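hiii so um. not sure if this is the right channel but i have a protein structure encoded as tokens and i wanna go backwards to a sequence. like what aa goes where. can anyone help
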């Protein structure tokens, strides 16, 4: 078919295609596809100028004025006599000149025109940015200035934050003097884009140069104050150990990859591999660990990928994994080998899993330990997980979040002269914290308390604490037998992993000792059947049993930003149904239009997640006379549960729902950690 005869010119065909794309794609994507079409086809200059003129008009309609101006400038480069493009530029620039990046401050009465004028004069004399002058001279909050800039430039505002990881993979080829001269800095390389901090995202000359420098990469610009950008540059390139903001080894990170390319690389030659003994790798590993410690991270996950060609480093915070950093896979062997050296592992063994322990003792932070585990993964890589074993003091039992019934029973059973008390739940559910709170409650000079732990995470005055070492045969069972010869009143055994340890624990509790331990089970009643299945004598076990506390940790709503709302009657009824209608009546909670629940929002304090910190939800089964009778009969889980429920036990989910009504968390979090 002859398209030209039918009235279809290249310009008309392309603009119709792009017009349809605008219906389904964001303007930026359409612009990228238009550039690709133009570059892949041999259009005449006049056709290209007409396509760009049409695109400029469309962008102006969508209020993307900066992009529109640039497109009209492209038209003038191709066709200097194009009067329409020239008029469009003048119109857009005249309209935008009436706006100010400080309009929000003026309209919100946070600043006056007189202050802006004085700040401009001081800025010209001193060389400081207007924003810095307004902060220093007129005490205008940086966050208010940031909001004004963000609204004006339509992009996120970023303030200087010394906890931001150094983007080593981005600054390898960039000169410090170059970044200072042009006032921009790369902040991070995420999954989908590189984030660049600039002082003026509308400076097309600067932004176009950055895009050209980082060819084939998606760029996201953020706005920052000039002084903060300079701080970032100094921080990323700093070697000054006395810097106020960089008082640890975090602050000395040099460039790890001098010849870094923004193109993806294959890990196929020895020359690409960074040496684990280099000071740069040592500092990077220290940065990761120390940052995790400061952020109260429980686990560090280091995950090389043969697909993305990057190492993803994730932090588990408040029970949830979040991405912290990505670096090229070329660094994987060096990072893993460095960690193996620190943990005393075999760096040559990459085919089998290994376990070890790292002791961290760095200036500016307390000494702490990490438990390291490696696992061979696809592509010839190794994944590594580091569990931070930060020493801490015991919490008070009254601060554990136990409801009145559970707190009363716990205090009673741990005050008994002998018997067996268990705390159960999955790994990372706070069992050790609860046990030490119980021990702290009864810890007195007249009582001798021995503990066997793997590892020792919490230390207390008055406790004699032993760390088991299975590699040399010092396991829980052997330590327990030793404790019985050391005149104990109270024994805490870290975990009942096998029949031998459980049997010794029961035996100790029947011979006049109060024994505490943990187990990995899902509920309190299930713990009884698990121990019976191990082969414990039901008669002895029932005589020893005082109680079992099951628990989970759920994230707390951020107290700084959680949003109150009035739930609908349907939502209230759903919560009641989840709790159990008959039992719920005893709570005394009634529906009304004034009933308030809370939901997550997100702020700087909680890193935008809406959650900050964790709390425990509990399920306590007491060793009542009736329950002990069922244990002697080796009753099943259902029978034990029904009896405990009659005795007043609240389930994990019920305890969580009550805390939802107290505004501490929401049902999504309770459902995440509880079996439905």
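sure thing!! here u go:
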């Amino acid at each position: 078919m002859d398209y030209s005869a039918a009235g279809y010119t290249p310009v008309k065909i392309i603009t119709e295609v792009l017009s349809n794309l605008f219906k389904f794609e964001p303007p930026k994507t359409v612009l990228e596809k238009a550039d690709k079409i133009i570059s892949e086809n041999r259009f005449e200059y006049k056709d290209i100028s007409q396509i760009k003129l049409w695109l400029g008009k469309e962008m102006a309609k969508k209020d993307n004025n900066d992009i529109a101006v640039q497109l009209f400038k492209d038209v003038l480069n191709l066709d200097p006599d194009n009067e329409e493009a020239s008029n469009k530029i003048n119109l857009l620039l005249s309209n935008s000149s009436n706006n100010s990046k400080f309009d929000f401050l003026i309209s919100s009465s946070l600043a006056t025109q007189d202050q802006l004028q004085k700040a401009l004069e001081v800025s010209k004399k001193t060389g400081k940015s207007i924003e810095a002058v307004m902060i220093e001279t007129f005490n205008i909050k940086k966050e208010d200035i940031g909001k004004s800039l963000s609204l004006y430039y339509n992009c996120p505002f970023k303030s200087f934050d010394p906890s931001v990881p150094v983007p080593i993979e981005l600054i390898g080829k960039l000169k410090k003097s170059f970044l200072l001269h042009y006032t921009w800095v790369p902040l991070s390389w995420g999954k989908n884009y590189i984030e660049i901090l600039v002082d003026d995202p509308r400076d097309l000359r600067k932004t176009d140069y950055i895009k050209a420098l980082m060819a084939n990469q998606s760029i996201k610009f953020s706005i920052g104050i000039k002084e903060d950008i300079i701080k970032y540059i100094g921080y990323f390139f700093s070697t000054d150990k006395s810097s106020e903001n960089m008082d640890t080894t975090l602050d000395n990170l040099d460039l790890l990859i001098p010849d870094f390319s923004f193109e993806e690389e294959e890990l196929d030659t020895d020359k690409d591999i960074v040496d684990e003994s280099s000071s740069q790798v040592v500092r990077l590993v220290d940065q990761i660990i120390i940052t995790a410690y400061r952020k109260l991270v429980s686990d560090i996950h280091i995950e090389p990928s043969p697909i993305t060609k990057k190492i993803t480093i994730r932090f588990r915070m408040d029970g949830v994994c979040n991405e912290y950093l990505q670096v090229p896979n070329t660094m994987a062997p060096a990072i893993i080998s460095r960690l193996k050296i620190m943990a005393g592992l075999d760096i040559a063994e990459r085919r089998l899993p290994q376990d070890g322990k790292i002791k961290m003792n760095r200036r500016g932070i307390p000494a702490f330990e990490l438990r390291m585990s490696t696992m061979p993964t696809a592509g010839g890589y190794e994944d590594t997980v580091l569990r931070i074993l930060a020493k801490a003091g015991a919490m008070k039992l009254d601060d554990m979040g136990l409801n009145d019934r559970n707190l009363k029973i716990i205090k009673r059973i741990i005050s008994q002269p002998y018997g067996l008390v268990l705390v159960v739940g999955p790994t990372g559910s706070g069992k050790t914290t609860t046990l030490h709170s119980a021990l702290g409650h009864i810890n007195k000079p007249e009582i001798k308390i021995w503990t066997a732990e793997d590892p020792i995470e919490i230390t207390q005055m008055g406790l004699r604490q032993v760390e088991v070492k299975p590699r040399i045969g010092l396991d829980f069972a052997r330590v327990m037998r030793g404790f019985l010869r050391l005149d104990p009143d109270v024994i805490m055994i870290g975990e009942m992993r096998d029949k031998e340890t459980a049997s010794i624990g029961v035996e100790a509790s029947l011979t006049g000792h109060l024994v505490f331990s943990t187990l990995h089970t899902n509920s309190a009643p299930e713990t009884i059947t698990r121990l019976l299945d191990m082969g414990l004598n039901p008669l002895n076990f029932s005589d020893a049993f005082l109680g079992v506390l099951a628990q989970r940790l759920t994230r707390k709503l951020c107290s700084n930003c959680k949003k109150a709302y009035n739930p609908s009657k349907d939502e209230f009824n759903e919560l009641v149904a989840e709790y159990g209608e008959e039992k719920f009546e005893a709570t005394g909670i009634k529906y009304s239009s004034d009933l308030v629940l809370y939901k997550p929002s997100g702020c700087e304090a909680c890193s935008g997640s809406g959650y900050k910190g964790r709390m425990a939800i509990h399920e306590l089964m007491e060793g009542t006379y009736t329950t002990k009778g069922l244990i002697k009969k080796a009753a099943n889980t259902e029978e034990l549960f029904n009896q405990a429920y009659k005795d007043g036990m609240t389930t994990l989910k019920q305890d969580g729902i009550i805390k939802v009504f107290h505004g501490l968390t929401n049902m999504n979090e309770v459902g995440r950690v509880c079996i439905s």
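oh and The radius of gyration is 32 Å.
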